[in-house]
Each structure stands twice: as structure tokens, then as C-alpha cells.
Design brief:
Elements (H helix, E strand, L loop, with lengths): L3 H11 L8 E3 L1 H7 L2 E5 L10 H10 L3 H6 L1 E4 L3 H13 L3 E5 L5 H9 L3 E4 L4 H15 L2 E2 L6 H17 L5 E5 L4 H13 L4 E7 L4 H7 L21 H10 L2 E5 L1 H14 L10 H8 L1 H4 L3 E5 L7 H14 L3 E9 L4 H11 L3 E8 L9 E9 L3 H13 L3 E5 L1
Parallel strand pairs: 2-10, 3-4, 3-6, 4-5, 7-8, 7-10, 8-9
Antiparallel strand pairs: 1-2, 11-13, 11-14, 12-13
Helix pairs in contact: 1-3, 1-8, 3-5, 3-8, 5-6, 8-9, 9-11, 12-13, 12-15
């Protein structure tokens, strides 16, 4: 089984080839969660993810013959970019098989690193099978995203760096997809600090590793905003390490991840993808479990689609009461709408949208229903706006 020595050797190979990313305390998040939180900013890597660590370690160990033949990988995102970037740096041919649904921006970014991109299959498993077929047919070296000791050792350097920066961490909280990152980190951390607690986090929509380790049978969903950890079949090598060296695995929901992502953006001014927010999501969902502890979180990636990010921010504003939808009933006479908007403005709220409804309403024909989306300062302010409208003679309530 993988040892600390393997990870220390990987760290030497990685020296000067990628960032030793900052690992710093977040005072605000610490105050909000009751734990002392240290963030490891892996979203600052050149390809915006920790994945290039494993890729770099694997490619650096290829023989001259293997390097001439080239490599092939299957990935919908971060692993693809890590392999492509380090293959380009080392002058190695890289072929990446991506599922047909992969976002255009990820395809172009991977091509931008000099890789040949092939779109095949609707799932990663289909891409995987095709990549293995091509590897055999063309003599390419297959670079698995997580089920490979060299990959796991490379990812483990994250744990090594975190304990060099903050040697007395009590707990590491790590997102889990195929399991490569947590397996490598647990190997390094438990060797350096045997009493450290290692907690893995999966999304409830993709609980493959939780089921494999705990013997549960949670159903698998079809999509998640944490697409970086949306893995149906966990790796066999990471699974064996996790069973021995990881203390527990927990599940978080989509809303927990969305909330964590928006908090990191607002508080830390840092952009992460869904998987990168999973660790903080676990602290928000299970605060009592981590209270008073020194906790290390890995912001493992920052590749997120701008439109998805916009939707998550907007939904976060709704949850925080900063964006609200209210319904106002009024007499259908000239000036009613002007009076309603003036009343809302007088209460200090800003109007985003107005929808005037005459036909689809149960009100009498002389009345009209007006739906407003308003920007507010929070929940108390929404109540104040509604009270002001009702005091002005309108019938107003919040829509959920």
C-alpha cells in the first residue's frame, strides 16, 4: 500500500512544476462555523485544480519509450486539463476522451493545452471504455484519473503541504469522487500526525464511496453541481486506502454546496466549483462535529461555468432574503401600479421585475395581481416592505 515515502518522492518531482498553494486561516468562516478553519487554495493552480499534481507525478515517471508513444486519459474536466498541460510541458502527445455532454469551455481549454480531444459516449464510463480501446489500438499509456498509485501519490502532496503550513491541524475535510485526493492526503497526514482525523465528503447524489465503505445502498442521482466528484464507480486503489486510513465519510446536499460556494465568493473573494465547496458544505451541515477544532479544508478546484455560477449566486440571494418575490393585489384603476412601486421604493427596496396579471387570477375582474421581484437587505427588510404595502391599503404577501 502507498506510503509517506511515495508522496515525499512525488513532492520532489513536482518541485518547481506547480504551485505550493497558500494554506491560510479564514477568520470570518471560523467565527461563523465555530471551528478554526484553514483553507488550501488549490483553485489557484495553473489549471485551477489539484488534479495536475497526480498528472505531473505520473507523466514524470514515464519511460523514454512510453513518453514517445504518448498518453491517453478520459475526463470531463480537471483531470483532462492537468494531463494536457503537463504532457505539453514535457513534449508528450496527449489524447483526451471526453463525454459528448462536456461543456464547450472545458473542451476548448483542454485543446488550448495542446491535447487532441475526442468526444465519445454519454457517460464517463463510456468514455473510459473507448479510451482503453484506443490505448490498446494506438499503444498509448492510459492515465487514470484516480485508480493509479502514481496519481494518488501526486494528490497526496496536498496533505504534505497543509501539514507543513499548519502542523497542528486536528482534522482534514476532503471532497471525495473517485477517492484519489483523500487517499493520498490520508496516507501523508496519518504518517505525519497519526491522531489527525480525516473526513471525506460526498454529494448525496453521488454516494458511491460511502456505499462502498459503509455498506449502505443510497441511490445514485443523475446530476449535481459538484460535477468534479460525480463518480459512479470509486477507484479500487483509493477504496482500500480509505477503508484503512479515513475516519469517516459524510454526505451533503446540493443546497449545502450552493450555500458554501456563495459564502466563499462573498467572504473569501475566491471562486470555487461545486466540488471545491463540498468541504465547507460539510462544516455548515454538521457544525457540532467540528466545533472548536483546527480544520483544514481543500478548495480543490475553481472551474465552473459562468451561467451556472450566476444561477447559484441568484439562488443564494433568495435563500439569504436579499432577493424576494412578492404578490400584491390591487384595484385595477389608473395609478395603482405607480402607487405600489412608489410604496416599495419608500420602504427602501429596489424592484428587479414586475409582472402584471389580469387573466390568470381568482380575484374579481376589477382587481389585478402584481408580482414583484425585489432586492432587499434581508428577511427583516422583506417583512418591513410587506407591512408598508399592507398599511398603504394593498394586500401583499411573499411568494415561495
Amino acid at each position: 500500500m502507498l506510503s509517506l515515502n511515495d508522496i515525499e518522492q512525488a513532492a520532489q518531482r513536482l518541485q518547481g512544476q506547480l504551485l505550493n498553494t497558500p494554506c491560510v486561516e479564514s477568520k470570518t468562516l471560523s467565527q461563523l462555523t465555530g471551528a478554526q478553519i484553514f483553507l488550501k487554495f488549490e483553485n489557484l493552480q495553473y489549471t485551477a485544480s489539484f488534479k495536475e499534481r497526480g498528472a505531473c507525478n505520473k507523466l514524470a515517471q514515464l519511460t523514454a519509450d512510453e513518453g514517445q508513444r504518448g498518453v491517453i486519459a478520459m475526463s470531463a474536466g480537471n483531470h483532462a486539463q492537468g494531463v494536457a498541460h503537463h504532457a505539453q510541458r514535457l513534449g508528450i502527445r496527449a489524447v483526451i476522451v471526453m463525454p459528448c455532454f462536456t461543456a464547450g469551455v472545458k473542451i476548448e481549454r483542454t485543446r488550448g493545452f495542446g491535447a487532441e480531444v475526442l468526444l465519445h459516449g454519454d457517460t464517463l464510463d463510456e468514455s473510459h471504455r473507448h479510451a482503453l480501446l484506443l490505448a490498446e489500438r494506438e499503444g498509448l499509456v492510459f492515465v487514470h484519473p484516480y485508480d493509479d498509485e502514481a496519481i494518488v501519490a501526486g494528490q497526496g502532496t496536498v496533505g504534505l503541504e497543509m501539514l507543513q503550513a499548519v502542523p497542528d491541524l486536528d482534522t482534514l475535510v476532503v471532497a471525495v469522487g473517485g477517492g484519489g485526493l483523500i487517499a493520498g492526503m490520508a496516507t501523508a497526514a496519518k504518517a505525519l500526525r497519526p491522531r489527525i482525523e480525516i473526513i471525506g465528503v460526498q454529494t448525496s447524489r453521488f454516494p458511491g464511496m460511502v456505499n462502498a465503505i459503509k455498506g449502505t445502498q443510497y441511490p445514485q442521482g443523475v446530476s449535481t453541481i459538484a460535477d468534479g466528484i460525480a463518480v459512479g464507480t470509486p477507484g479500487l486503489i483509493p477504496r482500500a486506502i480509505i477503508a484503512e486510513r479515513v475516519d469517516d465519510l459524510v454526505l451533503v446536499d446540493e443546497g449545502d454546496i450552493e450555500q458554501a460556494l456563495v459564502m466563499l465568493l462573498e467572504i473569501e473573494k475566491t471562486l470555487v466549483e461545486g466540488a471545491g465547496a463540498a468541504g465547507l458544505a460539510a462544516l455548515l451541515k454538521y457544525p457540532a462535529r467540528f466545533a472548536g477544532k483546527k480544520v483544514g479544508l481543500v478548495l480543490c478546484g475553481g472551474n465552473i461555468e459562468p451561467l451556472l455560477l450566476a444561477a447559484i449566486i441568484e439562488r443564494g440571494m433568495v435563500r439569504a432574503g436579499r432577493l424576494a418575490r412578492i404578490k400584491v393585489s390591487a384595484r385595477d384603476v389608473p395609478g395603482s401600479l405607480a402607487k405600489i412601486t412608489a410604496t416599495v421604493a419608500g420602504a427602501g427596496a429596489n424592484i428587479d421585475e414586475v409582472h402584471h396579471q389580469r387573466a390568470f387570477t381568482m380575484l374579481s375582474a376589477q382587481n389585478v395581481e402584481i408580482e414583484l421581484v425585489i432586492q432587499t437587505r434581508g428577511r427583516a427588510h422583506i417583512e418591513q416592505v410587506l407591512a408598508t404595502l399592507n398599511a398603504a391599503g394593498f394586500e401583499a404577501g411573499e411568494q415561495h
